[in-house]
Design goal:
The complex is a heterodimer.
Chain A: H1 11-14, H2 17-33, H3 39-53, H4 57-82, E1 90-93, E2 96-99, H5 100-126, H6 129-138, H7 143-171, H8 180-185, H9 187-211, H10 230-256
Antiparallel strand pairs in A: 1-2
Helix pairs in contact in A: 2-5, 2-10, 3-4, 3-5, 4-5, 6-7, 7-9
Chain B: E1 3-14, E2 22-30, E3 34-38, H1 45-52, E4 62-70, E5 73-74, H2 80-83, E6 87-90, H3 105-116, H4 120-133, H5 149-162, E7 167-171, H6 179-194, E8 198-202, H7 206-212, E9 215-220, E10 223-228, H8 230-233, H9 237-241, H10 248-258, H11 272-282, E11 317-325, E12 331-340, E13 345-349, H12 356-362, E14 371-376, E15 379-380, H13 386-389, E16 393-396, H14 409-419, H15 424-437, H16 453-465, E17 471-475, H17 483-498, E18 502-506, H18 510-516, E19 519-524, E20 527-533, H19 539-548, H20 553-561, H21 567-574, H22 581-586
Parallel strand pairs in B: 3-8, 3-9, 6-7, 7-8, 13-18, 13-19, 16-17, 17-18
Antiparallel strand pairs in B: 1-2, 1-4, 4-5, 9-10, 11-12, 11-14, 14-15, 19-20
Helix pairs in contact in B: 3-4, 3-5, 4-5, 10-11, 11-20, 14-15, 14-16, 15-16
Classes of the chains: A mainly alpha, B alpha/beta.
């Protein structure tokens, strides 16, 4: 399994993680508040352009489509064709009649999901997880939660390497792993070592953290350095204010019309 | 001089245990001293290390009495968090000591420093020093989880050294290191001690301990039974009585003494240098025969080294011009031809990355050649399954965590033979025999993980032994084992060969390979560069072996004495049939 983060030196890579987090939050608010049908798709287009500028367009598009294509298709089939909202206007497409509102709903939902996923994807593809967690702990995220986030990122590749090694060890002991019923019988000797090993590791890991002064009293320091700037601070403030003004605008629009 | 580590009558019983792990232990270690702790598996060494680092009773629950001060701190009263600035602990399992929250070796080494809140400039300087000391510079950007066992162990040691504790406690620091790294670690620890660091380490490698420690403490069933300078303590007959063993130099000198070749009245040596000096003192040159070890001294038949008198039998495994390239493009094997016959005892040696693991995985079809053929009892591995090959070839991998899963040792041992479809009666017989051979009868109904780590490894080996395969393959079988357990494995290799079964061992433990096995295969960059009986190695072959992986202690002694030595003495030094005295007294 390859990690989501794609190393690079583009502008987006170099931005302070918090700037990117606030930016991402702004895009997400916009996805749901902008009143136009095509807005989420346009936002996704913008994200795609940013991804291209950061040199990750290929991976960005591939991951986004892989995650969302099945959902999109089922949305169109279920909401758009099989169970449209009651009272939909049918539009005829050759021999078939399709409900307009159903299609619209499916389109809006799936493009929203696309833009939503794309926002997070771009954030994670251009931000090293350790930088992101460090930036968040600096702003008050508890260290223990930051630790758990980082460990869970590393544990997946480690577990998959161990799974391979366990499979090798048990096949060497005559365990057949091919064929349906055999595969079921093989679960205990394959999962057992993984679980028991992980449980035993927990105590030793706790010891190791103690040895490495994780719980030592006093201030902590960090090897990672995040570059921030006045420009970015101002930009973050503006981005935080934008949704407020957008909402005000929407309310005003509501009263005026 | 005031003691930096001061233990007074410490008795400690783990919360879940019935009997104490430490009994009335008193110990004073002054500043700058290197104190080695030896003893059998389960003697209390790890508990003593944990106590000195403050993990008892504040991390491991239990009943404690007595007093323990380390670097002026009462380690019984203070939690570890308060003690980390005074004492650092390196545990024996490197994989479980990785923080998990850092993405590169560089940052992993810095993890403790961040927690201590050091200024950045100082962290950078200390990390650079620690990486350099443990020769990790080239690995600095690698993921901690992507390293080999030995590299992880070096990283974990570097991470603790970077914190610069005034007291350093190491529990089996060499368990996964290769010989050069082991020697290098001794140099680092000596340097630190010269600069005033007080060091306490627990080790099974008595030769290494003898060369490093200023003083040795011997534990047995939680009690301190002997202590003093390594020369006298490690050659105390008491250590043989308690099955702890002696350093090899002492064992060799004792054998020489029986033949009148050791100076009368001279104490037995604990190190190679002292051994050589003692042998030089009485043995002068007698004719200067060019040495060739006898090749006919083994009690077992050797199909390959025999001169054709025996009927040639088909090999158990044969690799024919095997090439293997990993999907990523790494060419691990480049034309390897090796056959393992009936009754052979083979050592497979080579540096990290030489192709040893890849070769082993070809012996039962876990990997299949990209070119060439791999045959298990005449059948190509590409035409059968790994599980079917297991009848012929059983492999015990180094990381036994990946193997053990059953609730009892007995169930664990029965798993393999059951997979092979043997009858219940035969399974019982095989399991009983494997338990007996590795002396695990008393542990048969225990959970494997309730046993000390060294015994756990024996369980993993017994579990494959119980399959009764024609070839038993062991990957680093002696890692973390005490001398008594290693002696069991040596005896196992002899017995298997006598029964017409074969053994192939991959190991950094050259002394074990030399004493337990008789053929050596050396791999370098995916080629077999040497394949010979130990006894038939000539000077060029010895030099090649030395350059790649080093030489066993006996051969080093023999080559250091060289022409000033007669052939009988050399034969004595390099005789593979010289069992360690603990085996002869325990069996």
């Amino acid at each position: 399994m390859q990690p989501i983060y794609a190393p690079g030196t583009s502008l987006l890579h170099r931005l302070h993680p918090l700037t990117k987090v606030v930016g991402a939050a702004l895009v997400i608010v916009a996805i749901y508040l902008l009143p136009w049908l095509l807005a989420p798709l346009a936002l996704f287009g913008m994200l795609l352009m940013l991804a291209a500028l950061s040199g990750v367009a290929d991976r960005f598009l591939r991951t986004a489509l892989r995650v969302l294509l099945p959902i999109t298709i089922s949305l169109f089939v279920i909401q758009g064709i099989l169970f449209p909202p009651p009272g939909s206007t049918p539009i005829s497409l050759g021999p078939i009649n399709l409900p307009l509102e159903g299609l619209e709903f499916a389109f809006l939902t799936s493009t929203r999901l696309l833009a939503f996923t794309g926002t997070f994807l771009l954030l994670l593809q251009t931000t090293h997880p350790a930088d992101l967690v460090f930036a968040l702990t600096e702003r008050g995220l508890p260290r223990s939660i930051g630790y758990i986030l980082l460990v869970s990122l590393q544990i997946v590749p480690d577990m998959s390497a161990r799974t391979t090694a366990i499979l090798e060890a048990q096949r060497s002991r005559g365990l057949e792993t091919q064929g349906g019923l055999r595969r079921v019988r093989a679960i205990v000797p394959l999962v057992g070592p993984l679980v028991v090993g992980a449980l035993v590791d927990v105590e030793e890991r706790a010891m190791a953290l103690e040895s490495r002064a994780y719980t030592a009293p006093g201030l902590k320091s960090s090897l990672r350095q995040l570059v921030d700037s006045t420009g970015q601070r101002v930009a973050r403030l503006l981005m935080l204010l934008t949704p407020v003004s957008l909402m005000a605008g929407r309310i005003a629009l509501f009263f005026l019309t | 001089m005031t003691a930096i580590i001061a233990l007074q009558n410490v008795t400690f019983t783990y919360a879940i245990a019935n009997s104490p792990a430490l009994r009335n232990v008193s110990l004073d270690v002054p500043a700058g001293q290197i104190c080695g702790v030896v003893g059998r598996a389960g003697a209390g060494k790890t508990t003593l290390c944990a106590l000195c680092a403050g993990f008892i009773p504040n991390f491991y629950d239990g009943r404690i009495s007595g007093g323990a001060m380390v670097d002026g701190q009462d380690v019984i009263q203070h939690p570890v968090a308060d003690l980390v600035r005074h004492v650092g602990l390196v545990n024996s399992n490197s994989f479980s000591q990785i923080s998990g929250a850092r993405f590169s070796v560089y940052e992993e080494v810095g993890f403790g420093l961040e927690n201590l809140g050091l200024p950045r400039a100082e962290m950078v300087e200390r990390i650079a020093w620690a990486l350099d000391a443990l020769q990790l510079g080239e690995l600095r950007d690698r993921s901690p989880y992507g390293l080999s066992g030995g590299q992880q162990q070096r990283m974990v040691i570097a991470a603790t050294l970077a914190m610069r504790p005034p007291v350093l406690v190491l529990d089996e620091p060499t368990a996964q290191l290769d010989p050069p790294a082991t020697e290098h670690l001794a140099d680092i620890l000596r340097d630190l001690a010269h600069q005033g660091t007080t060091i306490l380490f627990a080790e099974h490698r008595l030769d290494w301990t003898a060369g490093l420690a200023d003083r040795v403490v011997v534990l047995d069933v939680g009690q301190l039974i002997a202590e003093g300078p390594p020369e006298t303590t490690l050659t105390d007959p008491l250590l043989l009585d308690r099955y702890i063993g002696w350093p090899r130099a002492a064992t060799l000198a004792a054998a020489a003494r029986e033949q009148g070749r050791w100076p009368t009245g001279r104490p037995l040596p604990s190190t190679l240098d002292r051994l050589i000096a003692g042998l030089r003192a009485v043995n002068h040159r007698r004719g200067g025969t060019i040495y060739r070890a006898p090749t006919d001294h083994a009690p077992t038949d050797r199909a390959l080294t025999g001169d054709g008198a025996e009927k040639p039998r088909a090999p158990i495994v044969a690799l024919e011009d095997v090439h293997f390239t990993y999907p990523g493009g790494v060419e691990a094997l480049r034309g390897v031809s090796v056959a393992v016959g009936v009754g052979e005892r083979v050592a497979l040696l080579g540096r990290n990355g030489a192709g040893k693991s890849t070769l082993v995985r070809h012996l039962n079809g876990l990997l299949r050649p990209t070119a060439g053929r791999a045959l298990v009892s005449g059948t190509e591995t590409s035409k059968t399954t790994v599980a079917k090959c297991a009848r012929q070839v059983g492999i015990v991998f180094q990381d036994i965590r990946n193997q053990l899963f059953a609730r009892t040792v007995r169930d664990e041992l029965a798993f393999g033979p059951r997979n092979l479809g043997y009858s219940p009666a035969r399974i019982d017989a095989l399991v009983d025999r494997a338990l007996r051979v590795l002396k695990l009868q008393d542990a048969a109904n225990e959970h494997p993980y309730d046993l000390p780590p060294a015994w756990r490894r024996l369980v993993a080996i017994a579990a494959v032994l119980a399959m009764d395969s024609a070839l038993l393959v062991l990957d680093e079988p002696t890692a973390g084992l005490d001398s008594a357990s290693i002696a069991l494995l040596t005896a196992l290799a002899h017995d298997l060969a006598a029964q017409g079964k074969s053994v192939l061992v991959v190991s950094h433990d050259l002394d074990f390979c030399f004493e337990a096995l008789d053929r050596v295969i050396l791999l370098r960059e995916g080629h077999v560069v040497l394949d010979s009986a130990w006894g038939a190695l000539d000077d060029a072959a010895l030099a090649a072996l030395d350059a790649e992986v080093g030489l066993p202690l006996s051969l080093r002694a023999a080559s250091a004495l060289d022409l000033s030595l007669d052939s009988e003495l050399r034969a004595l030094l390099v005789s593979q049939e010289r069992f360690s005295p603990i085996t002869s007294s325990s069996q």
